[in-house]
Amino acid sequence: MELTTEQQSVFDGLMLSDANLELSIRGRQKNARFSLTSKHNSFVRRTVDALPFDWAPVNERHFYDSRTNKNYHRCTGRTRVDGWFTSQYHRWYKNGTKIVPNDLSLTSICILWWYLGDGHLARKRSRPNYRRVILATDSFSDSEKQWLKDRLQQLVGENVYV
After folding, report:
1. For residues 6-17, average pLDDT
2. Which of 78, 74, 80, 79 is nearest to 41 (CA)?
3. How many CB atoms neighbour CB 32 within 10 A?
4. 132 and which of 3, 18, 71, 122 could share a cystine (Cβ 3.0–4.6 Å)?
């Protein structure tokens, strides 16, 4: 599978966020698939449109969580297994744990899709002009967070905090 530079940036931004790669074992072969879940149907459908993968039908489900006593809606986009995803799995996971790959190119498109997948804008009522973009990095190591911080600092030229 060949991706354009822009499509690779979209994929990498989603992988920095909540998207994941799952290994599927069939017989002796292990291949991976790409998966993305969101409460926003439009986000999953936009992702399906943006990436030229062999997608399974988008799955939507409603469920009740007795712990929170609330109803939820989830939309999942999942590809079919492919060798390209297996190579990406080995790029993005070390011993089954998600990492930031050394060859990651942190572009503005990559950051945009990272934000769309796992970011938000923080505001404070007590300070009307306060705005801070938050990008989730909880699953990454301290050295990976520092690497991302340094790259973001180079790109945006503003104060970047971990």
Report:
1. 97
2. 74
3. 23
4. 122
